[in-house]
Specification:
single chain; 210 residues; alpha+beta; Proliferating Cell Nuclear Antigen; 2 domains; 6-stranded antiparallel β-sheet; elongated
Protein backbone atom coordinates (compact mmCIF):
# COMPACT_ATOMS: atom_id res chain seq x y z
CA UNK A 1 0.00 0.00 0.00
CA UNK A 2 1.16 3.53 -0.75
CA UNK A 3 -0.62 6.42 0.96
CA UNK A 4 -0.43 10.18 0.63
CA UNK A 5 -1.22 12.00 3.90
CA UNK A 6 -3.71 14.38 2.25
CA UNK A 7 -4.75 12.57 -0.94
CA UNK A 8 -5.14 8.91 -0.15
CA UNK A 9 -4.79 6.07 -2.62
CA UNK A 10 -4.04 2.37 -2.40
CA UNK A 11 -1.48 0.74 -4.69
CA UNK A 12 -1.41 -3.02 -5.26
CA UNK A 13 0.96 -5.25 -7.24
CA UNK A 14 -0.94 -8.18 -8.75
CA UNK A 15 1.15 -11.18 -9.85
CA UNK A 16 -0.64 -14.13 -11.41
CA UNK A 17 0.40 -17.73 -10.57
CA UNK A 18 1.65 -18.25 -14.15
CA UNK A 19 4.48 -15.79 -13.43
CA UNK A 20 6.15 -18.14 -10.94
CA UNK A 21 8.12 -21.33 -11.56
CA UNK A 22 6.16 -22.93 -8.70
CA UNK A 23 2.94 -21.73 -7.04
CA UNK A 24 0.79 -23.55 -4.50
CA UNK A 25 -2.07 -22.05 -2.49
CA UNK A 26 -5.48 -23.59 -1.96
CA UNK A 27 -7.06 -20.53 -0.31
CA UNK A 28 -6.70 -16.77 0.03
CA UNK A 29 -4.35 -15.51 2.76
CA UNK A 30 -4.03 -11.94 4.07
CA UNK A 31 -0.87 -10.89 5.92
CA UNK A 32 1.12 -7.71 6.46
CA UNK A 33 4.91 -7.41 6.54
CA UNK A 34 7.53 -4.69 6.18
CA UNK A 35 8.16 -3.99 2.50
CA UNK A 36 11.35 -2.12 3.48
CA UNK A 37 12.83 -5.16 5.26
CA UNK A 38 11.74 -7.38 2.37
CA UNK A 39 13.51 -5.09 -0.13
CA UNK A 40 16.71 -4.89 1.94
CA UNK A 41 16.82 -8.68 2.27
CA UNK A 42 16.24 -9.18 -1.47
CA UNK A 43 18.89 -6.57 -2.32
CA UNK A 44 21.56 -8.11 -0.09
CA UNK A 45 20.87 -11.64 -1.32
CA UNK A 46 21.15 -10.51 -4.94
CA UNK A 47 24.53 -8.88 -4.20
CA UNK A 48 25.71 -12.21 -2.76
CA UNK A 49 24.75 -14.02 -5.96
CA UNK A 50 21.44 -15.65 -4.94
CA UNK A 51 19.29 -15.60 -8.07
CA UNK A 52 16.11 -17.41 -6.99
CA UNK A 53 13.85 -17.35 -3.94
CA UNK A 54 11.11 -19.50 -2.43
CA UNK A 55 8.47 -17.39 -0.61
CA UNK A 56 6.58 -19.28 2.10
CA UNK A 57 3.81 -17.77 4.23
CA UNK A 58 3.52 -19.53 7.58
CA UNK A 59 0.29 -17.94 8.75
CA UNK A 60 -0.08 -20.07 11.89
CA UNK A 61 2.98 -18.42 13.50
CA UNK A 62 2.84 -15.11 11.60
CA UNK A 63 6.11 -15.64 9.79
CA UNK A 64 7.31 -15.37 6.20
CA UNK A 65 10.15 -17.71 5.30
CA UNK A 66 12.44 -16.80 2.41
CA UNK A 67 14.69 -19.53 0.99
CA UNK A 68 17.37 -18.12 -1.33
CA UNK A 69 19.13 -20.50 -3.70
CA UNK A 70 22.43 -20.30 -5.55
CA UNK A 71 23.27 -23.75 -6.99
CA UNK A 72 26.54 -22.46 -8.52
CA UNK A 73 27.93 -21.13 -5.23
CA UNK A 74 31.24 -22.54 -3.96
CA UNK A 75 32.00 -20.06 -1.16
CA UNK A 76 28.49 -19.34 0.10
CA UNK A 77 25.88 -21.91 1.23
CA UNK A 78 23.78 -23.06 -1.69
CA UNK A 79 20.61 -22.26 0.30
CA UNK A 80 20.15 -19.45 2.81
CA UNK A 81 17.04 -18.96 4.94
CA UNK A 82 15.70 -15.63 6.15
CA UNK A 83 12.52 -14.84 8.08
CA UNK A 84 10.25 -11.80 8.23
CA UNK A 85 7.66 -11.06 10.89
CA UNK A 86 4.10 -10.94 9.58
CA UNK A 87 0.82 -9.87 11.14
CA UNK A 88 -2.76 -10.89 10.37
CA UNK A 89 -4.67 -8.63 8.01
CA UNK A 90 -8.34 -8.38 7.18
CA UNK A 91 -7.42 -7.59 3.59
CA UNK A 92 -7.97 -4.32 1.76
CA UNK A 93 -11.36 -3.51 0.32
CA UNK A 94 -10.82 -4.10 -3.38
CA UNK A 95 -12.83 -2.08 -5.84
CA UNK A 96 -15.49 -3.72 -7.98
CA UNK A 97 -14.16 -2.66 -11.36
CA UNK A 98 -16.52 -1.95 -14.25
CA UNK A 99 -14.37 -3.21 -17.12
CA UNK A 100 -16.97 -2.04 -19.62
CA UNK A 101 -16.30 1.64 -18.88
CA UNK A 102 -12.72 2.68 -19.51
CA UNK A 103 -10.19 4.97 -21.13
CA UNK A 104 -6.68 3.98 -22.16
CA UNK A 105 -3.79 6.35 -22.85
CA UNK A 106 -0.18 5.88 -23.89
CA UNK A 107 2.22 5.82 -20.95
CA UNK A 108 4.21 8.69 -22.48
CA UNK A 109 1.09 10.84 -22.38
CA UNK A 110 0.45 9.83 -18.78
CA UNK A 111 4.04 10.72 -17.92
CA UNK A 112 3.52 14.14 -19.53
CA UNK A 113 0.42 14.66 -17.38
CA UNK A 114 2.38 13.72 -14.25
CA UNK A 115 5.26 16.11 -14.93
CA UNK A 116 3.47 19.05 -16.53
CA UNK A 117 0.64 19.22 -14.02
CA UNK A 118 2.73 18.08 -11.02
CA UNK A 119 -0.08 18.54 -8.53
CA UNK A 120 -1.31 16.61 -5.47
CA UNK A 121 -4.88 16.87 -6.78
CA UNK A 122 -5.91 16.68 -10.45
CA UNK A 123 -9.48 16.96 -11.71
CA UNK A 124 -10.38 14.58 -14.52
CA UNK A 125 -13.24 14.92 -17.01
CA UNK A 126 -14.06 11.89 -19.17
CA UNK A 127 -16.44 11.66 -22.14
CA UNK A 128 -16.86 9.25 -25.03
CA UNK A 129 -14.54 11.39 -27.17
CA UNK A 130 -11.84 12.67 -24.81
CA UNK A 131 -10.20 12.76 -21.40
CA UNK A 132 -9.17 16.04 -19.78
CA UNK A 133 -6.73 16.47 -16.87
CA UNK A 134 -7.06 19.83 -15.11
CA UNK A 135 -5.38 21.93 -12.43
CA UNK A 136 -6.05 25.66 -11.87
CA UNK A 137 -3.08 26.76 -13.96
CA UNK A 138 -3.24 24.24 -16.83
CA UNK A 139 -5.15 21.47 -18.55
CA UNK A 140 -4.16 18.61 -20.88
CA UNK A 141 -6.74 17.15 -23.30
CA UNK A 142 -6.34 13.81 -25.09
CA UNK A 143 -8.92 13.01 -27.78
CA UNK A 144 -9.99 9.92 -29.69
CA UNK A 145 -9.93 11.87 -32.95
CA UNK A 146 -6.23 12.60 -32.54
CA UNK A 147 -5.60 9.05 -31.28
CA UNK A 148 -4.63 10.38 -27.87
CA UNK A 149 -6.93 7.96 -26.07
CA UNK A 150 -9.14 4.91 -26.45
CA UNK A 151 -12.52 4.97 -24.70
CA UNK A 152 -15.28 2.43 -24.22
CA UNK A 153 -18.63 2.07 -22.50
CA UNK A 154 -19.26 5.81 -22.06
CA UNK A 155 -22.69 6.90 -23.38
CA UNK A 156 -22.69 9.82 -25.83
CA UNK A 157 -23.38 13.10 -24.07
CA UNK A 158 -22.46 11.77 -20.61
CA UNK A 159 -19.49 13.09 -18.61
CA UNK A 160 -17.69 11.40 -15.74
CA UNK A 161 -15.84 13.70 -13.32
CA UNK A 162 -13.46 12.64 -10.58
CA UNK A 163 -10.17 13.57 -8.91
CA UNK A 164 -6.88 11.73 -8.62
CA UNK A 165 -3.53 12.51 -7.04
CA UNK A 166 -0.23 12.42 -8.94
CA UNK A 167 1.96 12.60 -5.84
CA UNK A 168 4.43 11.25 -4.99
CA UNK A 169 5.62 12.24 -8.45
CA UNK A 170 8.45 9.70 -8.63
CA UNK A 171 6.03 6.83 -7.90
CA UNK A 172 3.74 7.67 -10.83
CA UNK A 173 6.70 8.50 -13.08
CA UNK A 174 8.16 5.03 -12.49
CA UNK A 175 4.81 3.34 -13.19
CA UNK A 176 4.45 5.15 -16.53
CA UNK A 177 8.06 4.31 -17.40
CA UNK A 178 7.60 0.56 -16.88
CA UNK A 179 4.23 0.16 -18.63
CA UNK A 180 3.25 0.85 -22.24
CA UNK A 181 -0.25 2.10 -21.42
CA UNK A 182 -2.34 3.31 -18.50
CA UNK A 183 -5.94 2.03 -18.26
CA UNK A 184 -8.50 4.00 -16.24
CA UNK A 185 -11.64 2.12 -15.16
CA UNK A 186 -14.69 3.23 -13.21
CA UNK A 187 -15.75 1.29 -10.13
CA UNK A 188 -18.54 1.06 -7.56
CA UNK A 189 -16.49 1.35 -4.37
CA UNK A 190 -13.82 3.71 -5.65
CA UNK A 191 -13.96 6.75 -7.88
CA UNK A 192 -11.56 5.27 -10.38
CA UNK A 193 -8.87 2.63 -10.80
CA UNK A 194 -5.72 2.99 -12.91
CA UNK A 195 -4.10 -0.24 -14.07
CA UNK A 196 -0.54 -0.38 -15.41
CA UNK A 197 0.23 -3.75 -17.10
CA UNK A 198 3.83 -4.94 -16.73
CA UNK A 199 3.61 -7.79 -19.22
CA UNK A 200 1.14 -10.68 -19.37
CA UNK A 201 1.12 -11.84 -15.74
CA UNK A 202 1.90 -8.69 -13.72
CA UNK A 203 -0.12 -5.51 -13.18
CA UNK A 204 0.06 -2.54 -10.86
CA UNK A 205 -3.32 -1.26 -9.63
CA UNK A 206 -3.88 2.20 -8.11
CA UNK A 207 -7.24 2.72 -6.34
CA UNK A 208 -8.53 6.25 -5.71
CA UNK A 209 -11.37 6.41 -3.14
CA UNK A 210 -14.27 8.80 -3.43
Amino acid sequence: MVSDPTHHFTAALQILPEYFEYFNSNQTHHSRFSIEKFYITMFHMELRGYSSMLFILIQAINKISLAFENPQSHLEPKVLLRELDASPSEGEQIAQVDYGTFVSIDSQDFKRVVHELNAPSVNVSLTASQIKFMVPRKEIVLTRRERGCITGGIPAGETFRFSITLHPLLFFHDLSHKSKRAWLFMSVDYCTVIIFPFGIFTQFWVYFPR
